[in-house]
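[audit] Reproducing an earlier prediction to check determinism. Same input, same settings, fresh worker. If the C-alpha cells differ from the archived copy the diff job will pick it up downstream; this log only records the rerun itself.
[audit] input (186 residues):
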Amino acid sequence: MTTWALEFALSKQLNKGTPLSVEYLNWACNKVINNRTADRGQFFHHLLKGFEQYGICPEQDMPYAHQFDPQYSPSTKARAQAKNIQASGLKIHWINPWKKQAGLTDSHMSQIKAILDKGWPVAAGSSHSRLLVGYHNDTKQPGGGAFIAKDSRPGTYTEVTYEFVKKKVGDVFWVESRPKPVRKKR
C-alpha cells in the first residue's frame, strides 16, 4: 500500500503512470530497521523511513522477488532513479501515526473522507494494509457507510465498513505531490 500511495502521487505529478518497486522499498525498509534475517510484514512508518532515506525506484529497475534474499540489493541505476524520485517533492501526511492500540476518532474519519474528496488515496493499516480510494455513505452499513479499498491481502478492490475502519485501523497516511512546473515558452 505504501508503494501504491507513492506511485499514485508521483503519477499525478508526472501526469503519467509510473509503476514503482515494492522490492526496492522493502530493501530500503530492511536497511533502516537492520533486518537481514527474514521476510516479514513491513509497517508503514518503517517503509516511509526507508523512502525518506533511500527513495524508491521504478519497478523495472528492481523487479519484485518472490522470496526474501538478504543479499538482493539495488543496482547503481536503481539507486540513482530512487534518488531522483525522492527529490521529486512527494510529501507524506500522517492522519494517525502508528500506535499499539488500533482505533480512529470521528475527526480521523472526517479527515480521510476530506482527502478522498480531494482525489488522493489514503493508506490504512490494520491486520493488513488497505489503500482507501473512495467511499459512500449508507445507513444500512455498520458505522453508516463503507470505504472502497484496494486490499493488500487479496489484491482486489473491496469494501470495508466505516465501523471496521474506526475500530480496527491504526495508522493512516496519504502522499501528496506538487504539480510538475510548466516551462514557459519564450
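[audit] rerun output stored. Observation attached for the diff report: The mean pLDDT is 92.
[audit] end
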